[in-house]
Description:
Blueprint: H1 11-14, H2 23-44, H3 49-66, H4 74-80, H5 82-85, H6 87-91, E1 108-112, E2 115-120, H7 135-152, E3 157-166, E4 176-186, E5 189-198, E6 201-212, H8 215-224
Antiparallel strand pairs: 1-2, 2-4, 3-6, 4-5, 5-6
Amino acid sequence: MSELPKGPLTREFWEIPETVEDPQWAGRRLVSEATRKVAHKVVVTFAPPDVLDRAAALINEAAALLEGHPAWSVKQAYEGGQLSQSPQQYADRQSIIGRANPFAPPLRLRREGDEVIGEVVFDHAHGGAPGWVHGGLVATIFDQAMGYVLITNGYPCVTASMEVKFEKPTRLHTGLVLRAREVGREGNRVKVHADLWDGEQRLAQSWGEFVQLDAARFRKIALQQKES
């Protein structure tokens, strides 16, 4: 396989630091955390209309403050080379693990021996049935963690297929632990298994099959994609 730049297919990209010194990066984390708090509050609040009007005005004011400043997507940074210069900063913008992304729970991942361990707490904005996490989000964190297994094993891959078995409802506002590991390999196909736990109780498990990619092919496909 061709040599990989510092990008989404490499382990270095996903090694996000717990603390950051770059003031712009740290500021983006602060804004994301504040936005995340607002999202969880908005879902459940029955504040009076005047309070909601004021809150909306403040949020719109914050959005206006960000207009007109330099901005580029992860794809644009990949094309322009900025991503290879500061890969972890762009990983920190990802939709599931990024502390600089207000949509992310975020899921924290680490490697322990042959396993990847994930920790996450879902809040009001992630709800499905009353008091429970939406099943699609459970599947999403499985996909993220299983992909991380492969990246940290040195396999640049993309998801080919996944199966999720839900055994118990997944509660909101609860510290959850996810464990994932590689379980097989055939040619360029790699198989991974993962479990989601609430304490000693297993809530769900997943099986995924991933396709190992050539770096040049990945770059060609990525650069062909158009953004609106």
